[in-house]
Design brief:
There is one protein chain. This protein is mostly helical. It has one domain. It has 6 helices and no strands. Helix 1 crosses helix 3. Bound molecules: zinc ion (ZN). Zinc ion binds next to helix 5. The site of zinc ion has 7 residues, from helix 5.
């Protein structure tokens, strides 16, 4: 399974990819003088990074990669995000789907990653199925979350993180660049629409 750093990168990438989906994106357009935090998508982008890491909170409990690593949990994330979006007056469907996609990115990365402990994979289709799924592609290395201060484990985890950054970093940067252009174009269209020719 990938490290929290790899999962967070996927969360950022998901938030920026979601901004490319047509629809009500007005709340995602930053003012010209905005800080980097606002331009990066502020709280929603940060929430997506946190949600992409969140399923591994089950490491604190028994039964890793079970209920939190499932479409059932993803559905609850969507519902919860929708409720928050309603209360803060944001586009409900967009926020709910963006948050669900960020959470689901964790499932995708774990599915693509190596797993050295049985049962291999994750119960991705819970509550519809208790089967564990894994791709077997081992695109991401196994990270160790025990004895993390020993030299062997430090080396193993550094190598895994470096590989995650090498794979996911360029994807996130590309999405960021495309998103900046897309939102700038959208802002120009909207300001044009706000000031019709007289
Ligand atoms: Zn996981």
């Amino acid at each position: 399974m990938p490290s929290p750093i790899g999962h967070a990168l996927a969360g950022f990438a998901t938030a920026w990819a979601a901004d490319l989906v047509p629809g009500d994106r007005a709340s995602r357009i930053p003012p010209a003088t905005a800080s980097l935090y606002v331009r990066a998508g502020n709280g929603l982008t940060l929430t997506c990074a946190a949600l992409a890491m969140a399923p591994d909170l089950d490491l604190l409990m028994a039964g890793h990669r079970t209920l939190t690593h499932s479409i059932g949990a993803t559905f609850f994330v969507a519902l919860f995000a929708a409720a928050i979006a309603v209360s803060v007056r944001r586009p409900v469907l967009r926020v709910a789907l963006t948050c669900a996609a960020a959470y689901a990115s964790h499932l995708l990365l774990d599915w693509l990653g190596a797993d050295s402990s049985r049962p291999y994979g994750l119960r991705a289709l819970w509550p519809f199925s208790d089967t564990y799924y894994i791709s077997g592609l081992d695109i991401f290395r196994q990270t160790a979350r025990r004895y993390i201060t020993t030299p062997t484990v430090i080396g193993q985890n550094l190598l895994a993180v470096a590989q995650e950054i090498a794979i996911l970093g360029p994807i996130a940067i590309a999405l960021w660049l495309v998103r900046v252009k897309a939102l700038a174009r959208l802002a120009a269209e909207m300001s044009g629409g706000d000031h019709p020719t007289q």
